Amino acid sequence: MKNKIRVLGSISLLSASLLIMNSCSSIPKGAMVIQDFEKDKYLGNWYEIARLDFIFEKNLNNTTAEYSLNENGTIKVVNRGYNYIKNNYVASTGKVKFAGDSKEGKLKVSFFGPFYSGYNIIGLDSDYKYALVAGKSLKYLWLLSRDKTMPQEVKEAYLKTAKDLGYNTSELIWVKHD
User: Fold this and answer.
1) In sequence order, which ranges of the chain are alpha helices (DSSP H)?
2) How many CB atoms lie within 10 A of CB 140?
């Protein structure tokens, strides 16, 4: 009987934790996603110019993200990069959903089953060549470009936006593409 109570207690605790995590905001305080977002214009290949490092991209250069439509209309993302420590390429395939209105740049991405994380487009030029993407918190930030480089004035504008939101931009990893 005591084991049953412990198991039920553990299940309840896990369920409550998942509910709390999923109800938390998936965008940093003060950040605003872009409006009038056009999904079809965002599709295609993006080069990662800079990021705040985290476990899944540790030791990666030549990192890219390719967005495409699945047959059912959902969005697929394939992230690729070269691990310069292990000397091999790695790739991870995920799915992207809108976190609300499809005309807003507030998305969520999953690489692990039912678990999604915030993917918030907070900067995007009118030609969809450069993007600033915030994760669910100030631990996640990406500067993306359709090319392997980004003009200095775009970098500076995106860095100012990030700093104004509270990001520590001195911790950015500037990705090499060679």
Assistant:
1) 2-23, 39-42, 152-165
2) 18
Backbone φ and ψ of 49, nearest 5°: -90, -45
The pTM of the full predicted model, rounded to 2 decimals, is: 0.85
**Which two structure tokens, joined as six digits, stand for 172?**
């950015």
- Say how far apart CA 165 and CA 7 lie, in whole Å: 42
> pLDDT tens for residues 55-90?
889 999 999 999 999 998 889 999 999 999 999 999
CATH number assigned to the domain covering 32-174 = 2.40.128.20
Helix (H) or strand (E) holding 132: strand 130-134
145 neighbors 58 (Cβ within 8 angstroms): no
